[in-house]
Amino acid sequence: MSNEPIRIFLAADSTVQDYDVSEKNQGGWGEFLHTFLNKDIKVVNRAIGGRSSKTFIEEGRLVGILNEIVAGDYLFIQMGHNDSTISKPERYTEPFKTYKQYLKMYVEGARNNQAVPVLITPPARLHVEDGTFVNDFPDYCAAMKEVAAEEMVTLIDLMERSLSLLNTIGYKEALTLFMASVNETDFTHFTKKGAYQMARLVAEGLKESNLPIAGKIKSVSENTVF
User: Fold this and answer.
1) Given 3, 124, 159, 187, which is the most exposed site by the fewest CB atoms within 10 A?
2) Alpha-carbon gap, residue 96 to 150, rounded angstroms
């Protein structure tokens, strides 16, 4: 058997990407996922800001991953934030049509390489209505769940997990997880602390899954302190 590490490739947007060491405040959960994994798993973070399921493919980024990914590796796909930007037609996808079609391209590409696709719904934003945090991307989450069911793909519902976390800790503490706590304007992107918590939620979802990798996730506690 090969001694090569299992690799998790991340295809996603700015809420997942790595940030330059000079960026002291903003973080993506892909930066912290390794914290919750055994050392024989390597995270290959290809997430990049401003991309939708469509533009990530059109720019050749998915092909780049598929040229590297091999049997036994994983492809984690989190898209939706930028797909919903109807004011930017180059990014926009219709949730129950083109969005689903693009997601299935990721799934098919991974499986053609004997890798394992995992779908991840987009995380919550800092958006409260009547005292409760709300899902800003309900159609995209629903469409991704349809793809997961149709293609029999493992899905981690990061939206529901993050909403549950935010509603549990309350607005004051939730604010510290978002860049709005730094610049008062950004209710989408995470602070390093927030990105760490999102990575914990992803790891929690993995540990509860039926994937072979589930046994390689370290114990995840809600009381984990960044």
Assistant:
1) 3
2) 13
